[in-house]
Amino acid sequence: VGRRHSGDTAVMNGGVAHNLSEEESRQDGAGDTDGGEDSNEQEVIVIQDTGFTVKIQAPGTEPFDLQVSPQEMVQEIHQVLMDREDTCHRTCFSLQLDSNVLDNFAELKSIEGLQEGSLLKVVEEPYTVREARIHVRHIRDLLKGLDPSDAYNGVDCNSLSFLSVFTDGDLGDSGKRKKKGSELEQIDCTPPEHILPGSKERPLLPLQPQNKDWKPMQCLKVLTMSGWNPPPGNRKMHGDLMYLYMVTVEERHISITASTRGFYLNQSTTYTFNPKPANPSFLSHSLVELLSQIRRLHLPSGLRGTHTWTGTHTSRLGYEEHIPGQTRDWNEELQTTRELARKNLPDRLLRERAIFKVHSDFAAAATRGSMAVIDGNVMAINPGEETRMQMFIWNNIFFSLGFDVRDHYRELGGDAAAHAAPTNDLNGVRAYGAVDVEGLYTLGTVVVDYRGYRVTAQSIIPGILEREQEQSVIYGSIDFGKTVVSHGKYLELLERTSRPLKVQRHNVLNEKDESMELCSSVECKGIIGNDGRHYILDLLRTFPPDLNFLPVEGEELSPESVRQGFPRQHRHRLACLRQELIEAFVEHRYLLFMKMAALQLMQQKANKESKLATLTENSSPGAAVPALPSTETPDSPLEGKAEDIIPGLAQAKELAESLAAEDGSDPKSREVVLNACKAVGSISNTSFDIRFNPDIFSPGVRFPEDSADDIQKQKQLLKDAGAFMVSCQIPSLVKDCLDHSALPMDGATLTEALHQRGINVRYLGNVLAFVDQTPAKAQLEHFYRIGISELITRCAKHIFKTYLQGVELSALSASVSHFLNCFLSSFDAVAHLPADELVSRRKNRKRRNRVPGGGDNTAWASLTPSELWKNIVSEAQSYYHFTLHCENADQVVEKYGLQKITLLREISIKAGIQILIKEYNFDSRHKPAFTEEDILNIFPVVKHVNPKASDAFHFFQSGQAKVQQGYLKEGCELINEALNLFNNVYGAMHVEICACLRLLARLNYIMGDHHEVCCFRHYKHILIFLSRYWASSTPTLSRNMYTGCVYYVSGNIGLVLHGVMEYDLSLRFLENALAINSKYHGPRSLKVALSHHLVARVYESKAEFRSALQQEKEGYTIYKNQVGEAHEKTKESSEYLKYLTQQAVALQRTMNEIYKNGSNASIMPLKFTAPSMASVLEQLNIINGIIFIPLSQKDLENLKAEVQRRQQLQESGKSVEDLTVDGPLELEDKIPMDVNVD
Fold this sequence. Notes:
Number of strands: 27
Number of helices: 40
Low-confidence stretches: 1-49, 172-176, 296-306, 313-325, 615-648, 840-850, 1017-1048, 1214-1238
Domain Clu: 296-550
Strand content: 5-15%
Protein name: Clustered mitochondria protein homolog
Keywords: Cytoplasm, RNA-binding
GO biological process, one term: intracellular distribution of mitochondria
GO cellular component, one term: cytoplasm
Mean pLDDT: 78
Structural class: alpha+beta
């Protein structure tokens, strides 16, 4: 369960809930708005009535209030107490109400006598060995919160916080800025050299900045189990459970006894065993209380984050690594949380919070188990078989390796297919989990890549290990379609998922040529566990195959695909379309369906009204339905024709949906729908319904003869989907990048952009080839460069995976450093084996570790740079069908403009490598860039399902919609509620919470609530430009630019530097912004004109009027050509040109006067004023997409009436595209509007 914060509550006001209700009713298509309002008001009353406050009394602390919900369990209060600073050191306690112990797993509403104001007492309970171990582990974790080494090295996903370093003490009222006399000490605003425009340096050390005043805190040097364990029999009878050994910072060696009553000092030493209590013994129930009596101890909580790809060598607290914990029944926990009630908002919140908590714990446990399996620390359940065929069970989780065991995938691509299958299966689990059908269960699934191996971790179905698979499977096939079984209950459950997942119900033949009905792929297996639940597993073919990468004899693809060089041979036959592509394709077909139906309906109406004999031919069925052109071509003839007749989609929908109102009584209307359905490939003849048969082109799957026509339609649908990918989705991605609505910044964001449009990464070569042929290639240089970098590092990762499989654990660091040298260093890496740290006397020693993949454990040393790059080029050609023209890293840098440091970061993140943070010399030809000591660790790369907070997400979407409509206050309230709900489900640290805070800060800034902006800025570490902070924000902005903050690019930094009169530095940044805008927006863009104006302002401040005039003339020319001389911007630029000319003339006169009369010259004072804060803020608003539109009161009323009229028209289904505001606007007052709220 996520952390609770005082004041956080699920209660919301009726207005907010009403807005959510409208949004949900629109999404679900349920009823009218009024019904939604009523139901939601009832729900809000339920929420408000359920929350109540109880008092908690813990030993040695003052009672405190805690707000709880009746649906919560007692266990959640336990978690809250373990998170609070004053009670975090307690683990073995019970909660008592009126001397009655509360059951940890009881819901609060079921506890008799628990009500508002009840006092719950925290009562210390006797320890057992298990409880003592849990307590020691918890104290160890708290102590580690003081030690930054885990955070520096990313252990257990700990991460560092650099807020105090970035802000340099400038944290508003809570800041600790040093005073110099009566004034605050000035902060150096000069940006470091490496972030200035044009700098070629890319240092690594600033990625982990050091605070000058920071000193490491340490409470203990050692806390571990004593060597005197276990206690002898006579001491067990005195209550001894275990013995601990501790070394304090003052080098005091202490022996501690953990007993049933608590912890106390004993008289044992390193060499003598004397378990009797010392004098004084300091008996304490908590280990922290004992330690605090020995010496002062303070235990803060640590932050959680992600693995870092850079780290440091640090010492750390000594402790026992593998203290055993409680083994959990993961499957029962995962399924039980899904079965929780979901009828109202409080129930759904508790359910989603429980699901998120269990999934997070399961993913962490699966990751630890996968590492233990690959490191050889887990015994296989089939130890007699070859290592690559072994399977494992650890902590009630089943682990299997990504190899083709028993030729299971022989016809699908062998090991390559076995490696791809787990990710396909995970995508299937994610899809079925998102549909969330009651009664249908999937397995907890985590896919881990570690040390070159892929491990699939799954929860275990109860009873599956006690019987053969043939007996267990009652639905689907265990041999890829040769034998098939079906089951009525599974068909019923899967039918409910078929519409959202676009899966067609179909028949296949089994081994007896009997027709079996399925509602999934044949590989999907249904097993009823001993717990009576209906499980589905092996969901690798949930989505249909990608025919562009699946050559089938006798099948010809669409012309669009053939022109792009498809079909292409892939290394396995499990290539399938992404769910996003399916959704986009169906939406595209729906648009065509609407247009076709509306077009035919209009033709019929025209025929009926005209009654012309010549139209009889045109109204015949053959002519009434225009043949469906290639729907994948963006400018298809049909689309153009329909658009000419029907200006808006709203009208098309209105006309098409009017068919439904006629209830199918009109045969002509039925004919219209029938023809439109046939044309777009709908499986229904009476309504639009596109679904895919996932078994098409699956080897071994046979279909009944009577479904031949349907199978042919399905084949054509798959060909059309493949053509839609290459002719619509890839061009749309490139178009989005051209108009900057998609902004990939590195490999991860590029991959995300591809996936959002349903484009698999295997199409990356096609995307780059398309960009290469685009006329505007120069404006896509950044995209092309990121794409090349991603392609190269992915090819290197593929090779690295195989390379690592033959490496012994003791040679891991040497092999990784050798690979990185071959990949990036200019030094011709000489193959050498590292000197063995441990020399054995035995000459013929056996290998200590068996590596799961087998192979020669010294083969890695023979790799050379030329061989590696030859393999990378070959991999790029065979996997991505892209030709790389390079033979080494230096040629890549020269030809494609990449940076070696970028390639290092990408390969480190993708392969899980952590390197020492220092400056590396890649270009030295005399010594390698990397040594063994530079490789700190190898982390697992983990893929798993991310549970969503659905209600919070709906609130967030509703808030965004309100903001887009101009209702900023209502939108802000909705986003605030979304933030509360996200906090409730996820805890404080989550990417969705970051998005909420970012939008709230932006909205509060627009609405003028600067105090709120500061709060969000402080909380989220985002700096908003405000009058009281802007000067001291400068160093923060410059640092954030280096660390990749999107908002604060050259223009923002240049403007702030201009505001604090750092003119030379400001000029460097603004000229860089001008160059970037000219390159990526084109020289005639209005953004370029604005950049010219900003540069001119700085030149004016420097009294360089000739340069200022030149820059402003460029901007004036762009404004004049783009918007005309009458436009306000053109006039402003013209006025500014006149002002600059006057200033230049005045300066020249003054200079002439000085030259002429020398010291006797009478000099008129020149106006050199610093830029006003208001003017700089105005420019900052503009370049960040915030524009304040001036409107009079009359205009406000007109605008309000217009918005209401448009909303009414939209609700009635009419088009509003051609509506405009009547009359010109009078510009008097100002209202803020955000033109770029995300």
